[in-house]
């Protein structure tokens, strides 16, 4: 079994919480506020958190006051199975959001000529889509909703490329 690590975060302000979420989104999935699950090894997570702490110290040297506490918990297979339901629900929620976003973007692509805003939106969708598929693979969760997202992504890519010609 792949090793998963749960990251528990306490941040006393929105600024600190946002900083942590931005940095840890690269190495994990936030299941709920302050609870992130990662597929990276503990040493890599320690390095990421040290960079967050360094950034927080820089902010404090400029007068910002904030507090950050964290715990890294390496999960056993049994513990991971207990958390897997929460991961599946979070990924399903992300699937729905991306499906809705993609459907709206597809309508915009079909109704307008190529523009820089469409290009940026498509690049954003593609980035979110790739991350979502990767998360499903990492956690080995393959709901039917993901197939709908994948079909929409294909249709959107075809339509986007057709409109760009």
Task: List its traits.
165 residues, alpha+beta, 4-stranded antiparallel sheet, 4 strands
Give an overview in words:
The protein has 165 residues and is α+β, with helices and mostly antiparallel strands. The chain has two domains: 71 residues, 2-Layer Sandwich (Alpha-Beta Plaits); 82 residues, no CATH class. It contains five helices and four strands; from the N terminus they run E-H-E-E-H-E-H-H-H. Helix 1 packs antiparallel against helix 2, helix 3 packs parallel to helix 5 and helix 4 packs antiparallel against helix 5. The model has no long low-confidence stretch (mean pLDDT 92).
How much beta, percentage-wise? 5-15%
Report helical residue fraction. 55-70%
Q: Label the overall shape.
A: globular
Order of helices and strands: EHEEHEHHH
Largest β-sheet summary: 4 strands, antiparallel
What's the total number of strands? 4
What's the number of structural domains? Answer: 2
List low-pLDDT spans: none
Number of helices: 5
Mean pLDDT: 92
Q: Alpha-carbon distance between the termini? A: 46 Å
What is the alpha-carbon Rg in Å?
19 Å
Secondary-structure class: alpha+beta
Strand line-up of the largest beta sheet: 2-3-1-4
Provide a quick synopsis of the model.
The chain is an alpha+beta fold and 165 residues long. The chain is 67% helix and 14% strand.
Write the layout of secondary structure elements.
Blueprint: E1 5-11, H1 14-24, E2 28-32, E3 35-38, H2 42-61, E4 68-74, H3 77-111, H4 116-139, H5 144-164
Antiparallel strand pairs: 1-3, 1-4, 2-3
């Amino acid at each position: 079994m792949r090793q998963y690590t749960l990251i528990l975060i306490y941040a006393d302000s929105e600024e600190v919480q946002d900083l942590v979420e931005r940095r840890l989104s690269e190495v994990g999935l936030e299941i709920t506020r302050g609870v992130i699950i990662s597929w990276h090894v503990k040493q890599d997570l320690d390095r990421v958190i040290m960079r967050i702490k360094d950034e927080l110290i820089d902010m404090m040297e400029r007068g910002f006051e904030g507090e950050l506490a964290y715990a890294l918990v390496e999960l056993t297979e049994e513990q991971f199975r207990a958390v897997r339901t929460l991961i599946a629900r979070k990924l399903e929620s992300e699937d729905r959001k991306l499906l809705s976003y993609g459907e709206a973007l597809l309508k915009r692509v079909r109704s307008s000529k190529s523009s820089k805003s469409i290009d940026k939106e498509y690049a954003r969708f593609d980035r979110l889509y790739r991350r979502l598929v990767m998360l499903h693979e990492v956690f080995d969760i393959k709901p039917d909703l993901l197939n709908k997202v994948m079909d929409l992504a294909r249709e959107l890519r075809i339509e986007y490329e057709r409109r760009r010609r």
